[in-house]
């Protein structure tokens, strides 16, 4: 008598293939029958010998598309639930010693509104840097939005020391069906917080050029496509000062020395998520040789080159000390294999990438990061010295208290 849906953790918190299950009433309410076929690629409906759906779905995509494609009757998150999720999430992050967050791959309108409401209420116990995740249907609409509705996001953006919004996210690559499903309901961002995009290399370059023309800072997820994106950035940099505007290449995984040098010349920033590429899915890169492994999530080399680089957790998991452990050990989770000894960084470098490195992303490096006079009163009290801890000793450290803007927002003391 009750429709039941057990959703998968999807690629953000699991690893494809991910499985979901639904009972017979749920299948009926969603119109899933013998003749149902997914429109999106990467989705399977498991069937019995007669061809009837068993109620089990398999998602091979990193981003969950099942609900958008086939399950309209499954309740979506309400605005109130998202706001409450953010409020609870901030408390969890505070308990790990985090005082600032930056979401580089964009936030949809509802997500931005929820953060803003918490900010207006004085309940934002975290410094937050957001990027607009736009919902445009093509180049013409994109230009209109950049010209008429996004001027506030130009340059350093708008906001204050607690909430700042700057620039736009423009996605590179992706299958066209992602874009088509997103257009059905732009407010349905499912378990993520961004509007799904799919742009060919030509569309990506055209959108980036528009953003450059209108003074907007661009953020884009690179992953293993640095060799494809760097030439595009170089062509745009011939016309516009994208380095001065602090464009950001997010989530770099594989790289070559030549491409990293080109990034340095561009003057753009880079974000890394070592827990994801080195620890969580490091097994995907077992085929790389030693030199290539050293440049997987290349924190050490980028730091040596003087590239503005920061590292973050991406909630995999959401503990910055775990991210620090990954950078200083580079161990993969299934075999404990070291993923490139030449990529290991010192504790000092790892800590810098998690603090001052991140402050660069929100134009705050002169007032956020160091414990110094004239800087924000943001700090974490730890159970031990993260600069002296070696290897697994980092994992034993605990956050005992956290201060944001001179207020204690977490305490176990």
Strand content: 15-25%
Structural Rg: 22 Å
Distance between the termini: 49 Å
Task: Tally the helices.
Answer: 17
Unreliable runs, pLDDT <50, ≥5 residues? none
- Which oligomerization state do the chains in this entry correspond to? single chain
Helix content: 25-40%
- What is the makeup of the main sheet? 8 strands, mixed
Secondary-structure-derived class: alpha/beta
CA-based shape: globular
Mean pLDDT: 95
Q: What is the count of β-strands?
A: 15
Write the topology of this structure.
Blueprint: E1 5-6, H1 10-13, E2 18-22, H2 24-29, E3 43-47, E4 53-59, H3 66-70, H4 79-94, E5 100-107, H5 109-121, E6 127-132, H6 139-148, E7 158-159, E8 163-169, H7 176-184, H8 201-213, E9 218-223, H9 226-237, E10 248-252, H10 257-266, E11 269-272, H11 274-280, H12 290-294, H13 299-305, E12 309-311, H14 320-329, H15 347-354, H16 356-361, E13 379-382, H17 393-396, E14 399-404, E15 407-411
Helix pairs in contact: 4-5, 6-8, 8-9, 9-10, 11-14, 14-15
């Amino acid at each position: 008598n009750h429709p039941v849906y057990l959703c998968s953790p999807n690629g953000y918190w699991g690893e494809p293939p991910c499985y979901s299950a639904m009972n017979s009433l749920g299948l009926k309410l969603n119109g899933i029958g013998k003749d149902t076929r997914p429109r999106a690629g990467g989705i399977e409906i498991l069937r019995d010998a007669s061809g009837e759906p068993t109620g089990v779905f398999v998602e091979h995509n990193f981003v969950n598309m099942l609900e958008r494609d086939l399950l309209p009757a499954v309740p979506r998150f309400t605005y109130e639930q998202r706001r409450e999720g953010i409020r609870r999430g901030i408390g969890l992050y505070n308990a790990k010693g985090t005082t600032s967050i930056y979401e580089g791959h964009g936030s949809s309108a509802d997500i931005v509104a929820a953060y803003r409401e918490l900010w207006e209420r004085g309940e934002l116990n975290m410094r937050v840097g957001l990027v607009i995740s736009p919902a445009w249907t093509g180049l013409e609409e994109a230009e209109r939005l950049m010209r008429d509705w996004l001027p506030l996001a130009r340059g350093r953006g708008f906001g204050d020391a607690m909430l700042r919004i700057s620039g736009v996210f423009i996605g590179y690559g992706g299958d066209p069906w992602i874009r088509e499903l997103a257009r059905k309901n732009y407010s349905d961002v499912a378990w993520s917080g961004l509007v799904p995009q799919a742009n060919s290399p030509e569309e990506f370059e055209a959108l980036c050029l528009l953003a450059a023309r209108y003074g907007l800072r661009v953020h884009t997820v690179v992953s293993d496509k640095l060799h494809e994106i760097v030439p595009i950035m170089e062509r745009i940099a011939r016309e516009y000062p994208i380095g001065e505007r602090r464009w950001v290449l997010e989530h770099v995984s594989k790289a070559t020395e030549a491409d990293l040098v080109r990034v340095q010349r561009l003057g753009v920033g880079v974000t890394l998520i070592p827990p994801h590429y080195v620890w969580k899915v490091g097994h995907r890169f077992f085929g790389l040789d030693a030199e290539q492994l050293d440049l997987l999530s290349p924190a050490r080399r980028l730091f040596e080159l003087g590239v503005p680089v920061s590292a973050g957790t991406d909630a995999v998991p959401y503990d910055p000390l775990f991210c620090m452990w990954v950078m200083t050990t580079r161990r993969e989770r299934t075999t404990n294999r070291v993923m490139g000894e030449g990529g290991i960084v010192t504790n000092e470098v790892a800590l810098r990438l998690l603090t001052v490195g991140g402050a660069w992303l929100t134009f705050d490096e002169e007032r956020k990061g160091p414990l110094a006079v004239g800087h924000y009163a943001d700090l974490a009290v730890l159970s031990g010295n993260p600069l002296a801890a070696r290897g697994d000793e980092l994992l034993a450290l605990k956050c005992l208290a956290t201060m944001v803007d001179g207020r204690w927002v977490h305490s176990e003391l």
